[in-house]
Each structure stands twice: as C-alpha cells, then as structure tokens.
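ENTRY TYPE: protein
CONTENTS: sequence, structure tokens:
***
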Amino acid sequence: MTTGTTVTPTVRTQMQWPTGTTRIGTTTYQVFYKSEVNMGFNLLVTPRQSGGHMTVYLEHYYSGAWHQVTAQDCGGVYADGWYGYVRALKLFTSNDHYRIRGHYTPPAKGAQTGSVWSQWTYLTVHPG
C-alpha cells in the first residue's frame, strides 16, 4: 500500500518598484507614487510544481476597517514557481492605506501540496 503526503507550501511576496518604506504604528508600508504608473507584486510558491493557480486579494482601509477591492483569479503559476501581478497606480486613492496578498491553490490532479495564503504586504500611494 502506498501512502501520499501533502506538503504545506510557502508563498513569498515581493513588491516591484516601491520608492521606499514608511512606518505607520507597528506596520511597515511600501511607498509608491502615482507618477510611477504601475505597482508590481510577485509571488513565489515553494516547493515548485507544475500547475496550480494564484488568486490576488487587494484591500483598502477606510472608515476604520479593511474592505476588499478585488479578488482576482490570476491563473496559472509559471513553471519556476513565480507569478507576477501588476496594477495601475491611478486606481488607488492618494495617501490611503492598502494591503495585498496571494492565495495559492494546487493543481486538481497530482497535487503534492495544499493551498496556502501569503502574508499581507502593506502599501500606500502618494500623489505626484
């Protein structure tokens, strides 16, 4: 009899093109400016396996709570385990707070890993 094990994967995040960071309370925010055009968010799933897909969740903080802006099913993860997401900075409200994270779902067949969430990454977008 053969038994299989499911490995819990990790999802590492990396912001693309921030101009710096700022601390608000105990949270570090990546800083972007609208003049930079786009914000990039990369996710790396390990262990790597073919198939599976990523969903990116973006939330906006206002009225004392986090509100979902989008939950975008982004499709398949590349063979090297990376997935890249780009969003136009003009879609963000200036000087407000946002957070973003990814959710990895393994392929339906032959999955060696379970699904997993990345950590939240916090950002703010300034005018200019």
User: Anything to note?
Assistant: The chain is about 0% helix and 60% strand. The two ends are 64 Å apart (CA to CA). The mean pLDDT is 86.
